[in-house]
Specification:
alpha/beta, globular, 13 helices
């Protein structure tokens, strides 16, 4: 979708162009030798996005696959430096915007990617990973998952958190169990994010978070990144209005300073359908994963801006939600 021909109001077009747009979670195929989908990153650029965090691994995949994916992505991005920029510092975000390029950082979903070695955290940070969550749906050595009998934060998990803080990696609690989440909040003294989690009060699902968790996250200075996944939005309807319903609920609870975007859009739809089908222990059919998962694509981001304006949101609050809050946390945590 070209912004100028999208049917947006002049005010929305201006805001999209003026604002830092940051999608804090996108998913390309996690195959170490495959770059076939990476040209689809243009969807972010065409939607006016300035920064995207690309997933490079999660707990169900081997730690060495994560390194292969990182190497593959970084190599391809450097080969296409006219359109994309690997972001290492806050200043790189400004460089990307000023040069009209898409800034790219990386993320990891779960501590299994460390292979039980804390020094991997610094290695991943040096390779551009800027946030990591503790556990992906199921329990692991660091903590509990949101779709498991949550064991709580382990001593090893506390060491992981301490090392993440030391190197400047943002701590994420999406996919993580409630007991583990609350213990993380008690252990750290910096902003915590839910990179791609929705409000349980709007739609009840094990992956969504309750109001008390939203409030505690906000107290840390953190950000709830609303995702565009239909089964977490409601009735498997991945619509702009459903996304904005969740945004608005969190804003009413915690203020516009604590809401962001993490669409969690998966570019290889067949890959995710096959993986969900083959791994019912991670994606239980009874939790809505069985019948296909609707997703909101990046080109909808300008439409979210328009919808927020239609609800009476102020320009400055829209700018915070669409990327300013992610930038604030990065500026505070990254080193």
């Amino acid at each position: 979708m070209k912004i100028e021909s999208s049917g947006l109001s002049r005010r929305a077009i201006r805001l999209v162009k003026e604002s830092l747009l940051w999608d804090n979670h996108g998913c390309m195929p996690l195959r170490g030798n495959d770059t076939s989908f990476l040209p689809e990153l243009k969807q972010y650029r065409e939607a006016g996005v300035d920064v995207v965090s690309l997933n490079v691994g999660f707990d169900s995949l081997s730690w060495d696959n994560t390194l292969l994916v990182l190497a593959n992505y970084r190599h391809w991005i450097k080969q296409h430096a006219e359109d994309y920029l690997l972001v290492d510092t806050i200043a790189d975000i400004d460089r990307a915007r000023q040069s009209g390029r898409l800034g790219i950082v990386f993320d990891i979903e779960g501590a299994c990617a460390l292979n039980k070695q804390l020094s991997m955290i610094e290695q991943y940070y040096d390779l551009g990973v800027r946030w990591m969550l503790m556990a992906y749906n199921r329990n692991n050595e660091a903590g509990g998952g949101c779709q498991d009998n949550d064991q709580g934060l382990t001593d090893y998990g506390k060491d992981v958190l301490d090392e993440m803080i030391r190197v400047g990696m943002v701590i994420c609690c999406s996919h993580t169990g409630l007991s583990t989440v609350m213990q993380i909040m008690e252990h750290v003294n910096q902003p915590i994010i839910f990179s791609h989690s929705n409000a349980a009060a709007v739609w009840q699902h094990k992956r969504n978070i309750h109001d008390d968790v939203v409030r505690v996250c906000a107290e840390t200075g953190g950000v709830i990144g609303i995702n565009g996944i239909g089964i977490f939005l409601g009735n498997n309807e991945a619509s702009v209005e459903n996304v904005v319903r969740h945004i608005d609920h969190v804003v009413q609870l915690a203020g516009p300073e604590h809401v962001g975007i993490g669409l969690d859009y998966v570019f290889d739809q067949q890959e995710v359908e096959d993986f969900v089908k083959d791994n019912p222990q991670i994606f239980p059919p009874e939790d809505g994963y069985a019948d296909g998962i609707a997703m909101l694509a990046p080109e909808a981001l300008p439409l979210i801006v328009q919808s927020l304006l239609n609800r009476g949101y102020k320009d400055e609050d829209v700018k915070k939600i669409m990327g300013g809050n992610h930038f604030r946390v990065a500026r505070q945590v990254w080193k």
